[in-house]
């Protein structure tokens, strides 16, 4: 049986050679079938990896939040027919905060070998740079959008961090970053530490950890910038 490769991509507009190992290019060259979140951006990424790649000879299957989960098995048809296949996320590593995880789960159920490949992860890179607890942490994804619910969720994460000594990691849609930050500053105690990590691995990268009291004196401009947030209350 063929293999399912989890192929990482960049976290933004940067040269793949800066963050993606060379062996990934070799793997990509050997594949014809790809499961992707967005065909257009996946084609562009593959062309940046190898300008000589024949994009039109490749077959793409689009898997995103609109995909009918009852149809997942069709994504594995190439693998079951003996063709190595790659999964490419919109940013970072497939299967982490990514719909590709559903296909990976099904691959294990069908005894298909899953091969994760090394690449950038905003979760791990921000945790490494935060100065927070890297032995006990939780990535909780997106918080609720309504203001009241979101503030309650933030307070709950702060309590959990204090009682379990656990770093809490979460994200937001880039155009809602400012609102999220406002809620964090309103909901959290002065001494709680907050790490803001934006544009990770890009030239405009910004990573800084301060107490909530310190952040209240001034915030970075994060509107429409990919960012990730880490919270820890000692």
Give me the secondary-structure topology.
Blueprint: E1 3-7, H1 16-19, H2 22-29, E2 33-36, H3 39-49, E3 59-62, H4 77-80, E4 85-88, H5 100-109, E5 113-116, H6 122-130, E6 137-142, H7 147-164, E7 167-171, H8 177-187, E8 193-198, E9 206-211, H9 212-215, E10 227-232
Helix pairs in contact: 7-8
Structure report:
- With 234 residues, this protein is of the alpha/beta class.
- The chain is built from nine helices and ten strands.
- The chain has helices at residues 16-19, 22-29, 39-49, 77-80, 100-109, 122-130, 147-164, 177-187, 212-215; strands spanning 3-7, 33-36, 59-62, 85-88, 113-116, 137-142, 167-171, 193-198, 206-211, 227-232.
- The strands form two sheets. Strands 3-2-4-1-5 form a five-stranded parallel beta sheet, sandwiched between helices. It has a five-stranded mixed beta sheet with strand order 6-7-10-8-9.
- It is elongated, with a radius of gyration of 19 Å.
- The model has no long low-confidence stretch (mean pLDDT 96).
Features:
alpha/beta, five-stranded parallel sheet, five-stranded mixed sheet, elongated
Offer a quick outline of the entry.
This is S-adenosylmethionine-dependent methyltransferase. This protein has 234 residues and is of the alpha/beta class.
Count of helical stretches: 9
Radius of gyration: 19 Å
- Please state the average pLDDT score: 96
How many strands in all?
Answer: 10
Helix content, binned percent: 25-40%
Main beta-sheet annotation: 5 strands, parallel
Report the principal-axis shape.
elongated
End-to-end Cα distance, whole Å, is 49 Å
- Note the run of SSEs as H and E: EHHEHEHEHEHEHEHEEHE
Strand order of the largest sheet: 3-2-4-1-5
Q: Runs with pLDDT <50, length 5+?
A: none
Structural category: alpha/beta
Strand content: 15-25%
InterPro entries: 4pyrrol_Methylase_sf (IPR035996), 4pyrrole_Mease_sub1 (IPR014777), 4pyrrole_Mease_sub2 (IPR014776), rRNA_ssu_MeTfrase_I (IPR008189)
GO biological process, one term: methylation
GO molecular function: methyltransferase activity
Protein name: S-adenosylmethionine-dependent methyltransferase
